[in-house]
Amino acid sequence: MKLLILTQKIDLDDDILGFMHGWVAEFAKRWDKVTVIALGAGRYDLPPNVKVLSLGKESGRSRLKYLWRFYRYIFGERHNYDAVFVHMNQEYAVLGGWLWRLLRKKTALWRNHQAGGFWVRPAVLLSDLVFCTSRFAFVARYKKTRIMPVGVNTDLFRPEAAVNKVSRSLLFFGRVSPVKRLELLIDALDLLKKQGVDFTANIVGDAPIRDTVYLEANKRKVRELELADRVDFKKGVPNCQAPAIYQQNEIFVNLTNSGSLDKTTMEAMACEELVLVSNRVFEDIFSPEQKERLMFKEGSAEDLAEKIKGLFSLADSRKEQLARQAREIVLSRHSWRFWPINYSRRWLIINQGRIKMIKLSIIVPVYNEKNTIDKILAKLAGLDLGVEKEIIIVDDFSVDGTREILKQYENKHKVVYHDKNRGKGRALRSGFAQATGDWAVVQDADLEYDPADFRIMLEKIREQGALVVYGSRRFGRKYHYFEGRYSGHVYALGGIFLTWLTNLLYGISITDEPTCYKMVRMDLLKSLDLGCERFEFCPEVTAKIAKRKIKIHEVPINYYPRHKDEGKKINWRDGLEAIWTLLKYRFKK
Description:
The chain is α/β, with parallel strands linked by helices and 589 residues long. The chain folds into three domains: 2-147, Glycogen Phosphorylase B (Rossmann fold), CATH 3.40.50; 166-334, Rossmann fold (3-Layer(aba) Sandwich); 356-587, Spore Coat Polysaccharide Biosynthesis Protein SpsA, Chain A (Alpha-Beta Complex), CATH 3.90.550. Helices cover 38% and strands 17% of the residues. The protein has helices at residues 19-30, 63-76, 90-102, 120-126, 182-194, 212-224, 242-248, 263-270, 288-294, 301-312, 316-334, 338-350, 373-381, 402-406, 424-434, 454-464, 489-506, 522-527, 537-547, 572-587, and strands at 2-10, 33-41, 50-54, 83-87, 106-110, 129-132, 145-147, 166-173, 200-204, 231-234, 249-253, 274-276, 359-366, 388-395, 414-417, 439-442, 468-472, 518-521, 553-556. Strands 3-2-1-4-5-6-7 form a seven-stranded parallel beta sheet. β5 (106-110), α4 and β6 form a beta-alpha-beta unit. The longest helix has 19 residues, at 316-334. It is globular and about 80 Å long. Residues 348-357 and 478-487 have low confidence and may be disordered.
């Protein structure tokens, strides 16, 4: 597989786009050949399988010459790439999209801004996939859009024990332009000064030529408010030097409105620096406590000042704990390794029609299933899906002999034991915590569902790049709810009602909400911050996915229900809890 990347700049020393050098290096590990066309190129040190071509901005060439070189490169290199990744420049997607269509090259566009623009819609139209990191981004509205990790180099951006943070220090870091709302921070600093709060603030970053007036206006404002002795403006530094800046300051402040997701915030979190943000995308990322302490009201200098005072007042041990938790978020969901891995695998799926690099984690929650556990594990072990798979069994304190049976599987699969009965939801959360796959799916320990149906679910991922696939017992009529010895009319009617309520509340159209078979991409699943304990896992996952406007694909599956006398554990109380869960997450902010 060979990849063409188009980006603004390849330069280790660039203060804004220096990170792209690391991304290209990671892509090079997973693609046979990588060709990069950049508007400008500076210093770089990339693997031998990477070729860098510049349109010539570093030498001051005209736009007409840029255009000539652009078409010369994308046509001349056509045999050296199978797929195209356009990073940040929707103009490239439009200018080259028609040719890539003729050449049958699959194309993806990365764009992460709240606003649209003249070039954006045609760029999306000409792209096979669109990537962004925020559900508030303009392009998130399109069906072909996929939410991706931010892509932070967590090897570079990390805490350094030898560096002491300056107490009560604040940091603004990055490009200085109106969209970054620096004036809001200065207003908050003025309020802190008037309240007698001690602090220092570092504003590190350069302004584009078009925004130099904005930068000078903020410097003037600092002088007029007599904050010059506390606020220090510094020039931007190369991306590779940024960690030292984060490590020295106690609180990083990002004032960008909801829409984009500034990479600098994740870099600060990776360095275990406390952050303050107003971007609503963090509502999906932070825990309830983190949202309370680390988020301020968008556009409110008063609330920002209060949140700064709140963090200043915390004990050092509590600050360190919050900072460690922030880094864990980046490590588990937004590390730079996830970006090229997920991107590469998606192209292996879509561009080549294969799924060799996918790993499926099959989570098997077990409670008192001694009569069926051997049979279902044998089915799973013998199942050939054409992908790598791992089986993770979570015993929820079985007391019927199941636990003893599971001992013989410890050398074959991951087996997790609960020290007391905690519920199916908690068992699943324990399993997800152990999973290392790209996708996850749940397999109950009874024999109601046939794991052979995983094949058709994986086929949906292969064909359409789905993030979420449900196996529906009603879709395609492979099973009729009211036929057969094990029909269970009450259970069937309950499932139909929950599906109807889900569609009504969340404006979606699915046929089987409470199905066990939910295949979800792992990074998405782990970002949902699940809190389920019992059978409310299904409505919680569905509600949170639906609120993010992520399409739930469905495929027909087989179903062989059992009766309560044969061990079925769900009851009417669980149905009420499912209704409450759907209502709770629909109206919860």
